[in-house]
Amino acid sequence: MNPATDRAVALVTGAAGELGRAICARLCRDGLHVVAVDLNLEAAQALVRDLDCQPGQRALALHADLGDQASIEAMVDRAGAAFGRIDVVVNNAAVNHRGSLFDFDPVQWDHMMAVNLRGPALLCQKVAPYWKAQGSGRVINMVSRCWVAGGPPAYVACKAGLVGLTRSMARELAPWQVTVNAIAPGLLPSAFTLDGRDRESFELMAEGSIGNTPLKRLTTPEDIANTTAFLASSDAAFITAEVIHVCGGSQLAPFGRA
Ligand SMILES: NC(=O)c1ccc[n+]([C@@H]2O[C@H](COP(=O)([O-])OP(=O)(O)OC[C@H]3O[C@@H](n4cnc5c(N)ncnc54)[C@H](O)[C@@H]3O)[C@@H](O)[C@H]2O)c1
């Protein structure tokens, strides 16, 4: 722990987005220092201004492009210089270029793989020396229920890849008591899911999603923030290499009526 303040440091990527904001707010409420990382620095700064930090608690907004190794490394250096340690990494940032197998754009495919899959790996590679020195750490990777359900191929491939990375890193980082888990949210409205869709087509998609969800509602940002907080806490110290589906059972195949 941080000798000065006894608070852990959480670094959250995609912090300015719908889920990122809720995760930062919850980890801040739980008493962690928060490093809010986003491509959109202004939005991350606005989020940090809104966080309700207690005396001795700090929140810092940093720019990074998760698709760019130098940018990731510069950001981690700045976070390390500011706090002296990094405990929790939430790999939440992602981009989504839609496209089917028949019409996907290879440049967009590579961009998605770089941001959504290589980015989390490079970030963890750069933070690893902190975890090794501390003998503790937490990684929480944001995937999606579609890693099992299927969907747009590039998006699903990088989320399924991120599950594979979760399991590999869980083994590689275990000697330092670093746990690595994934959260698979269901559908919720955000810039990510609304992009390129009008509200009406989102509502139609949401209706279909609720229809296939045994617990009969969409995911909320708070559902995801609560699970992130649990995985970041000492209560989850012996859980690693898991995927927690936070999607009301929509990872199950629809079941016909008897
Ligand atoms: N919204 C959903 O329905 C849903 C469902 C399942 C999984 N997810 C996953 O949850 C995570 C967050 O999604 P959201 O709905 O909050 O999306 P969002 O669009 O609201 O937020 C994404 C954030 O990532 C940032 N970002 C984009 N490219 C970046 C880059 N190259 N470097 C750094 N930051 C970058 C954006 O600026 C944005 O603030 C994603 O990993 C997404 O795949 C979302």
From TrEMBL:
Signal peptide: none
Pfam families registered for this protein in UniProt: adh_short_C2 (PF13561)
Family: Belongs to the short-chain dehydrogenases/reductases (SDR) family.
Spans traversing the lipid bilayer: none
Keyword Cell cycle part of the UniProt annotation: no
Organism the protein comes from: Pseudomonas reidholzensis
SUPFAM superfamilies xref list: NAD(P)-binding Rossmann-fold domains
GO biological process: fatty acid biosynthetic process
Key words of the record: Oxidoreductase
GO molecular function: 3-oxoacyl-[acyl-carrier-protein] reductase (NADPH) activity; quinone binding
Entry coiled-coil feature ranges: none
UniProt EC number: 1.1.1.100
Protein name: 3-oxoacyl-[acyl-carrier-protein] reductase FabG
